[in-house]
Amino acid sequence: MNLKAKSAFVGAGLLVAAVALAQFDIGSVIKVVGVGAAVSKFGPQINTAINKLDGHKDAYTATTKVVPILSVALGGRNAIGAAQVMGPANRVKQVTAVAQLDQDILGRQVKIRAMVPVSSKNVVSNIKRVDGVGISGIVDLKL
User: Fold this and answer.
1) First to last CA, the chain
2) Residues 18-32: tens digit of each pLDDT
């Protein structure tokens, strides 16, 4: 992992930890830090497992990698986990995390969810979307 990627991971981890400290108990903070470290260390193996599950083989036009995902629900469940992103190799390289927002509407009859591959370290207020990349797999841990 190069220095820029490590810095992005540490920045995202610190942001996630700050959000977690503000909203969750210490057990949840441990999960956040643990999942972030696991994604950093085991991302390639998680990516291989997802690709094996869905039969995908990476090529320049459709390559994959696993990045941290932070789910923030308005009035609901918050979670941290991992997302597999897929797209052209040059775009996938830019993705450092996935910001996931979800909200119940029409009472609780409909849930809407936005999943945004981002290149920014701050997935709360400075979202920098990476166009041309989608989400192809999710690993989610309930907090």
Assistant:
1) 28
2) 444 445 455 555 565
| Cβ-contact 100, 113 below 8 angstroms | yes
3-class secondary-structure state, position 93: coil
* Other CB atoms within 10 Å distance of the CB of residue 17: 15
Helix, strand, coil distribution of the chain in percent, nearest 5: 40, 35, 25
pLDDT tens, residue by residue, 39-57? 888 889 999 999 999 999 9
Please compute, for residue 58, the number of CA atoms within 13 A of its CA located in the half-sphere on the CB side: 19
Strand ranges, E, within 15-133: 63-74, 79-87, 97-105, 110-118
Q: Exposure string (b/e) for 71-108, b if CB count within 10 Å is 16 or more?
A: bbeeeeebbbbbbbbbbeeebbebbbbbbbbbeeeeee
- Rounded Cα distance between 53 and 76, Å, is 29
CA-nearest of 3, 7, 89, 9 to 43 is 9
